[in-house]
Amino acid sequence: MSNDILVFVELQNGDIRKVTPQLVSAARPLAEARGGKLHALLVGEGIGELARKAATLGVDSVAVVEDPSLADYTAEAYAEAITQASKRLGAGALLFGNTSIGKDTAPRVAQRLGVGMISDVTGTISTGGNPIFKRPVYAGKAVTHVEVLESSFVISVRANSYPSAPAAASPAPIQSLAVAPDPSKIRTKVKEVVVRAAGKVDLTEADIIVSGGMGVKGPEGFEFLRPLAEVLGAALGSSRAAVLAGYIHPSHQVGQTGKTVSPSLYIACGISGAIQHKAGMSTSKCIVAINTDPEAPMFEIADYGIVGDLFEVVPPLIEEFKKLLHG
Q1: Which residue has the higher pLDDT, 320 or 192?
Q2: pLDDT tens, 34-86?
Q3: In the predicted model, is pLDDT for residue 129 greater than 90?
């Protein structure tokens, strides 16, 4: 293994996921501290245009693996392709986004390479010598500093934990790798892809999230919150209780058993703040809580709190945001 660093470029809906330039930002100091190069890896089929886009992300080179078996994501095929590509490039460390695909693939790649892994990294303490990373534990109630003792490792990074790397002045060179997963090792095949209508903003990568809990009182309550999300360009989130009550689809759930998010702004409307919910959003840069109960646990971690009925508080907020953001 060399001192080079490899960033996995995850693709979604025909584009590069927002977490990728954040991975580049996290990886660049590691590569510089080791005196190595920073490579980006794309896996799929018919991804030439996306490879050219990846070449502007500030990496030293872009590697592309294309094969019909990689047209749709399957854990075995992607893990095999990434493992082979990593060996071909001689990368000493790999970075993934802590997305659904990243959490599914990264441990498999680490096992195949025989290296250790740190998941859900939210920051870098040190890049000199043995790098040290931050990651939350105990449902977000504590943060550990994990030192990497080996030169080769795999990490997955929580979205919005690092700033996005600036675009490069000139594109990096692109190379195609003759890598194909062994068919005998692929035990699953995608027969059909059913696309569910989703919001305009991906919840896990959203810079702003407006979330509702039991206080919204029903599905219509989330429709009441939607204009606030739209004026802010935000994603719509929810508590687990609201999902279980059938107020909104489970894909919107934030929390320990839902999605872990780290936006710049998190507005919690009618959410009491159970520990499971706070575990999924406590690393948000700024938290605003709106609740009729002044003793609600959400106020304990909120930067700003509004004690009041969300149905009375939200409309004037929408009007003020319209004035500030849209004149």
Answers
A1: 320
A2: 999 999 999 999 999 999 999 999 999 999 999 998 999 999 999 999 999 99
A3: no
How many domains does one find in the chain?
Answer: 2
DSSP 74-114: -HHHHHHHHHHHHHHHT-SEEEEESSHHHHHHHHHHHHHHT
Distance separating alpha carbons of residues 298 and 113, to the nearest angstrom? 42
Neighbours of 142 (CB within 10 A): 8
**Same domain, yes or no, for 88 and 219?**
no
User: What are 151's strand-pairing partners?
Assistant: none
Asked if 290 and 216 touch (Cβ cutoff 8 Å), the reply is no
The CA distance from 213 to 238, in Å, is 6
pTM of the model: 0.88
**253 and 124 inside one domain:** no
Q: In this structure, are 214 and 174 located in the same domain? A: no
315: three-class secondary structure by DSSP = helix
55 & 26 share domain: yes
Pairing of strands 38-44, 5-8: parallel
DSSP string, 140-196: TTEEEEEE--SS-EEEEE-TTSSPPPPPPSSPPPEEE------GGG---------PP
Residue-range definition of the domain harbouring residue 174: 5-185
Q: What is the pLDDT of residues 167-221, one digit of tens each?
A: 998 999 999 999 888 888 788 888 888 776 555 678 999 999 999 999 999 999 9
Distance CA 113, CA 152 (A): 9
Query: Of 185, 218, 250, which residue is a domain's last?
Result: 185
Shared domain check, 11 and 99: yes
Asked if residue 116 and residue 44 are part of one domain, the reply reads yes
Tell me, rounded to whole angstroms, the distance of Cα 266 from its chain centroid: 15
